[in-house]
Amino acid sequence: MAPGSATNLDRMTTTLITGANKGLGFETARRLIAAGHTVYLGSRNAERGRRAASELGARLVVLDVTDDESVAAAAGTVEAGGGLDVLINNAGIEGRTPDGGVVDAAHTTGEFMHTLFDTNVFGVVRVLHAFLPLLARSDAPVVVNVSSGLASITGASAYVYPGVAYPASKAAVNMVTVLYAKAFPDIRINSVEPGYTKTDLNANTGTQTVEEGAEIIVRTAQATGGPTGGFFSAHGPLPW
């Protein structure tokens, strides 16, 4: 069963969302604030983050997931604000070509692969490492790692997607999810697949709205019970 059938966390729940000044992160912040969460809106760009936080009634935290000092400073800010219950690792990049196309296998370089992994995978680990001590103090800690259906190795032979780096990075996120869930059994840690959502990440080529895409993120962030170490879409568990 997918997460979300349990009662919502209380209204004092504090949530951090990385990459939340637009797209899925912004919509997730909007929904969780409406549900009573105190939301720290993580944004690499201070001005864009300030505008988004002001619009939503969120707390801005400037956070670049590729920078250790930025992540550490953000952790200090959240700790000073009283702690953390829910961490949503949403920040991610796909790395499209200038005309909006997918970088295919023939044009994938080590440098390009490293750039995507630095944000999509190493960024998740940086943030987890910095915020785990705060989550450990929560009565009901939750981590939601935003993955992709393209991360499914089982499904890789069936889907049509010419790129290498993005699916590989999200498959790595799924492995990180499983291993952290095993290492920290008191923290519920899951990966979610929002679906092919129209955002700047994919040059707005997606077929879903951000409202549809954010559904599984919001549901998993709010559930007080259910599985850990899993991979879910809005329709249920997904194959690895």
UniProtKB/TrEMBL annotation:
Pfam entry (one): adh_short
Domain of life: Bacteria
PROSITE patterns attached to this UniProt entry: ADH_SHORT (PS00061)
Keywords: NADP, Oxidoreductase
Protein family (similarity comment): Belongs to the short-chain dehydrogenases/reductases (SDR) family.
Protein name: Short-chain dehydrogenase
Taxonomic placement: Bacteria, Bacillati, Actinomycetota, Actinomycetes, Pseudonocardiales
